[in-house]
């Protein structure tokens, strides 16, 4: 669809208000005050508790009851009900639904490696989560979620260039309370969640929340009914593990969160939180969309087919004798027989199936893969939150946190018993952070401010394993990272009069980054293709002379592509925000703002060939102008919020495929324009409706020469005027809710429809990976008895069984285009309790 261009000045907010039905807002049932038909929504988007209608930022906020009623179980599920936001439960080849691919207003990232920092910051009780691994949090004991759209560089800072997602969990109260639910459903789903709040003494209370989820995978692995041949087992090649299963896309998770809170009504408050999550399940589902092995352009798939189908004389003529010969295996270098001439040597017992269209999935919910199939994650942390009231108008706050994650995953991406494309990973990361805030109010609360300082340190190591084309290329990619970030920030909000207010803020950031990579090809494909086959008699590996001749940076490590330097980078930046607000009535605010977001640079860590210097990329920045209206109308029976924005997005960091390697480049610059309308209406005591519409026009204005991709039969290309990925033009959502009394209780009927127009799933606009327009329908019926200590819900998600690709990759060098489809239609029944 041809993108629509528009000028920000041409948008009439009043016209939008008339044209749009009633889009989405949210309520926080833990911090709400009934003052009419709608409830007050309290958020902490500006580091203090405020009515969301008083905050001059585009925010979508959702409370616990609303999340439960709409079957929102993790962060990614918010995507359907939040305009101009795309949240995916997985990224290409990660193999894990715990990895979050987040994009807000066209700015995001779809990778999970240490060389990629997220562009959307995810915060758990005020603590920044440094990795996208584990960021798709299970929404256990959540009080509310705030989705802040646009750059949040001033108050949230690090890597919130596109926006921020703030998850706020429930604090224990001063009364004994038990809440929870039990859910059963499709694919043998069994889920149990619960929370116990236990007062200990006056002022000291505690809570313990837990969650368990088990669900079978929706994609089944089956034996291929045709010819496979004498293929090599996937366990013969180096990997992060060798677990497998007979289905993909399942769940097996348990989580704990404990809190200890001191609040005796005095000046000092303290909350100690500990959480832990363990995931031990199969990998995400995978579907092969095309096999590319008939042209040298798809080199390793073509090479595999050429090796098995050519005579020794033909291989010699092409210079492929060595590369089709003995291969590396888990037993060591050159310890596995070669692929050369297997299908033409006169011995039918060693014949093997070629890589061709027989391996394209006929059924997206059936796979013929036999390789790695696991996703294991352990993550958790400890946070100490301290608050002290210096005066009635001045408070100091400290947030200290330590977090750690251990991740291992493996996924077979080729839909076959052949070892054509198999990936696995080990990631170990730990982070600590310290934030200090001074917040205050003066001039009868007309002037509010926050000042703060922040320190963050992250250390970790990763190791990637990828087997290509029957082991002709065997990537082993270890690396270590060490990052320290410092920041100082402040913001002033001054209500000068009843009519006008001003906002001014800024943040200084410095980051010191270190990365040491050691990516290698354990099969030595470069040596074999170049014919440099001399071996060191002491080690049996290629000689230093061969390594030097072929440009390997460290001759004593002849398989290592990655050089030693540069292994350190420093970044420094200052971002600011300025805004003004008008208050024509008590219930209407009109605002305008300019805000900046910033993300530091890093290293491209995945290489296809040896390089003399480690490839780096620079920082990116977003400058956004926004105007908006927030209003609560008709005796609080209608809440209507509108925002329009334009963003200059510079130095964009995006993934590009070079050969077999997903690399990161500063793609160029882009212009992003759009608007959002969100509303909630309560025309009667029994009927409410929420709805939203979002429009976005995100396109490149300049593309660096090294990042350009010409349109071709497989891809739309990357050039000035091309669309950014994960940025649909339109998204509509409407959710009517009807609650009426029956007996002494009530029944709640809820429906939820989301229409999203098509979008790119990858940078290059691979045609087979394009996400089409989708219509997702969810619905539920809930019975609440008069006692209100239990409830029963029956519902379904994706009722029309709309299937679409949420992520994928055009691995052209490896000869595969593959992707992960959305979950099918599912039913559930949930029993909730509260006493």
From TrEMBL:
Leader peptide range in chain numbering: 1-26
Domain of life: Bacteria
InterPro entries: Beta-barrel_TonB (IPR000531), Beta-barrel_TonB_sf (IPR036942), Plug_dom (IPR012910), TonB-dep_rcpt-like (IPR039426)
GO cellular component: cell outer membrane
Positions of transmembrane segments: none
SUPFAM superfamilies reported for this sequence: Porins
Membrane topology: Multi-pass membrane protein
Keywords linked to the UniProt accession: Cell outer membrane, Ion transport, Iron, Iron transport, Membrane, Receptor, Signal, TonB box, Transmembrane, Transmembrane beta strand, Transport
Domain TonB-dependent receptor plug, chain residue ranges per copy: 52-164
GO BP terms: iron ion transport
Subcellular location: Cell outer membrane
Domain TonB-dependent receptor-like beta-barrel residues, every copy: 333-799
Protein family according to the UniProt entry: Belongs to the TonB-dependent receptor family.
UniProt name for this protein: TonB-dependent receptor
Organism from which the protein derives: Croceibacterium xixiisoli
């Amino acid at each position: 669809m041809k993108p629509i261009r528009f000028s920000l000045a041409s948008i009439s907010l009043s016209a939008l208000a008339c044209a749009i039905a009633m889009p989405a807002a949210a309520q926080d049932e833990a911090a709400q005050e009934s003052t009419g038909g709608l409830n007050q929504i309290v958020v902490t988007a500006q580091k203090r508790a405020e009515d969301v209608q008083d905050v001059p930022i585009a925010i979508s906020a959702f409370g616990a009851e609303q999340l439960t009623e709409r079957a929102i179980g993790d962060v990614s599920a918010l995507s359907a009900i939040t305009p101009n936001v795309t949240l995916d439960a997985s990224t290409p080849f990660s193999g894990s639904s715990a990895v979050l691919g987040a994009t807000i207003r066209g700015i995001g990232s779809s990778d999970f490696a240490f060389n990629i920092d997220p562009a959307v910051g995810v915060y758990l009780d005020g603590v920044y989560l440094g990795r996208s691994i584990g960021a798709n949090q299970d929404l256990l004991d959540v009080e509310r979620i705030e989705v802040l759209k646009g750059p949040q560089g001033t108050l949230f800072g690090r890597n919130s260039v596109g926006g921020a997602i703030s998850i706020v969990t429930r604090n224990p109260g001063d009364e004994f309370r038990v809440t929870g639910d039990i859910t059963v459903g499709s694919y043998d789903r069994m889920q149990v969640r619960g929370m116990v709040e236990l007062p200990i003494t006056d002022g000291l209370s505690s809570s313990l929340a837990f969650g368990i989820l088990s669900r079978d995978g929706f994609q089944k692995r089956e034996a291929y009914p045709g010819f496979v041949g004498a293929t090599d087992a996937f366990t013969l090649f180096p990997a992060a593990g060798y677990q497998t299963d007979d289905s993909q896309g399942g769940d097996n998770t348990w989580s704990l969160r404990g809190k200890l809170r001191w609040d005796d009504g005095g000046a000092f408050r303290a909350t100690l939180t500990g959480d832990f999550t363990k995931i031990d399940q199969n990998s995400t589902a995978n579907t092969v969309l095309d096999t590319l092995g008939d042209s040298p352009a798809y080199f390793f798939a073509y090479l595999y087919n050429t090796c098995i189908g050519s005579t020794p004389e033909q291989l010699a003529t092409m210079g492929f004798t060595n590369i089709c010969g003995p291969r590396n295996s888990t037993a060591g270098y050159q310890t596995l027989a070669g692929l050369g001439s297997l299908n033409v040597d006169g011995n039918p017992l060693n014949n093997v199936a070629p890589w061709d269209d027989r391996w394209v999935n006929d059924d997206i919910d059936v796979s013929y893969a036999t390789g790695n199939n696991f996703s294991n994650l352990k993550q958790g942390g400890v946070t100490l939150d301290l608050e002290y009231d210096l005066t009635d108008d001045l408070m100091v706050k400290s947030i200290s946190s330590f977090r750690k994650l251990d991740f291992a995953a493996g996924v077979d991406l080729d839909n076959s018993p052949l070892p054509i494309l198999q990936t696995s990973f080990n990631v170990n990361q730990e982070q600590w952070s310290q934030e200090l805030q001074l917040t205050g109010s003066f001039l009868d609360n007309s002037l509010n401010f926050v000042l703060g300082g922040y320190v963050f340190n992250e250390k970790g190591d990763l190791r990637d394993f990828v087997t290509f084309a029957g082991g002709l290329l065997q990537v082993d990619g270890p690396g270590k990272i060490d990052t320290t970030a410092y920041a100082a920030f402040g913001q002033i909000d001054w209500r000068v009069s009843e009519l006008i207010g001003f906002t001014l803020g800024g943040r200084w950031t410095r980051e010191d980054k270190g990365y040491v990579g050691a990516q290698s090809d354990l099969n030595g494909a470069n040596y074999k293709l170049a014919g440099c086959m001399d071996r060191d008699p002491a080690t049996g590996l290629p000689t230093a002379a061969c390594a030097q001749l072929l440009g390997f940076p460290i001759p004593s490590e002849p398989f290592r592509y990655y050089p030693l330097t540069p292994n350190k980078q420093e970044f420094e930046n200052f971002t600011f925000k300025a805004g003004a607000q008008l208050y024509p009535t008590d219930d209407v605010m009109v605002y305008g703002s300019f805000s900046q977001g910033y993300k530091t640079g890093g290293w491209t860590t995945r290489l296809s060939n040896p390089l003399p210097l480690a490839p780096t990329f620079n920082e990116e920045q977003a400058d956004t102008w926004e105007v908006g209206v927030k209003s609560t109308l008709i005796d609080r029976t209608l809440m209507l919020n509108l925002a329009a924005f334009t963003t200059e997005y510079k130095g964009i960091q995006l993934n590009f495929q070079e050969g077999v390697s997903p690399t990161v480049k500063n793609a160029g610059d882009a212009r992003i324009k759009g608007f959002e309308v969100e509303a909630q209406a309560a025309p009667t005591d029994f009927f409410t409706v929420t709805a939203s519409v979002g429009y976005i026009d995100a396109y490149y204005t300049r593309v660096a020469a090294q990042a350009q991709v010409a349109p071709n039969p497989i891809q739309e290309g990357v050039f000035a005027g091309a669309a950014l990925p994960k940025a649909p033009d339109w998204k509509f959502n409407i959710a009517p809710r009807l609650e009426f009394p029956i007996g002494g209780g009530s029944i709640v009927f809820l429906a939820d429809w989301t229409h999203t127009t098509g979008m790119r799933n990858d940078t290059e606009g691979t045609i087979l990976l394009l996400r089409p327009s989708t219509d997702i329908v969810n619905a539920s019926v809930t019975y609440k008895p008069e006692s209100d200590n239990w409830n029963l819900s029956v519902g379904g998600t994706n009722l029309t069984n709309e299937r679409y690709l949420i992520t994928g990759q055009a691995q052209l060098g490896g000869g595969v285009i593959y992707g992960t489809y959305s979950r099918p239609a599912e039913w559930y029944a949930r029993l909730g309790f509260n006493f």
